[in-house]
UniProtKB/TrEMBL annotation:
Cofactor note text: Binds 1 Fe(2+) ion.
Lineage, uppermost ranks: Bacteria, Pseudomonadati, Bacteroidota, Sphingobacteriia, Sphingobacteriales
Positions annotated as active site in the UniProt record: E155
Record EC number: 3.5.1.88
Taxonomy, superkingdom: Bacteria
Any Gene Ontology biological process: translation
Annotated GO MF terms: metal ion binding; peptide deformylase activity
HAMAP family in alphabetical order: Pep_deformylase (MF_00163)
The protein's name: Peptide deformylase
Species in which this protein is naturally found: Sphingobacterium alimentarium
Pfam families per record: Pep_deformylase
Database matches in InterPro entries: Peptide_deformylase, Peptide_deformylase_sf
Function according to Swiss-Prot or TrEMBL: Removes the formyl group from the N-terminal Met of newly synthesized proteins. Requires at least a dipeptide for an efficient rate of reaction. N-terminal L-methionine is a prerequisite for activity but the enzyme has broad specificity at other positions.
Residues that coordinate or bind Fe cation: C112, H154, H158
Amino acid sequence: MPSEYFYRMKLPIVAYGDPVLRKKAEEIDEDYPNLKELIDNMFETMYAARGVGLAAPQVGLPIRLFVVDGSPFGEDDEDGPGDPTVKDFKKVFINPIIVEESGDKWSFNEGCLSIPDVTEEVMRHSNITINYLDENFEEHEIELSGLGARIVQHEYDHIEGKLFIDKIGPLKKAMLKSRLDSISKGLIRVGYKMKFPFQKKGR
């Protein structure tokens, strides 16, 4: 089917507890099937869920691919001015490698589309250098700081089989256990399509 007739789809986001979220993802090449459609669908899914990043493992694919669009953090709101460095920060990262993390670590309240309605303060490096391929398989190496670096670090963790809750203390994680169990069983209400690993049939 010609690309101009392609209809973007919202993909189900896999929930906490799905083994794919714990796999170290594999690199892909230009022959990966329907890659353009997948990237389009990932953006569509991310926007529908009001996210700023989405990694392929979150839609069930253990491949080294993620998309970001930090523009929501670039807009002014009632909490104050936005971050201009992410106002036009929309990118596709294929087979990325974080070359360097530097600068002081700083705390920010993070959440994840695979772990709805759970947010925690997470410490991350303020600066990174990352090498990656874009959607045309052209190579880039860029330096990022602040929120741009944080968004990318969060999504990079996904393709390494890690989640943001791995970076919080054991006591806080223990306090989240019942909520995490409910998420994995689908015993929650969420405003976007999800796939729950331990949901009972008929729900």
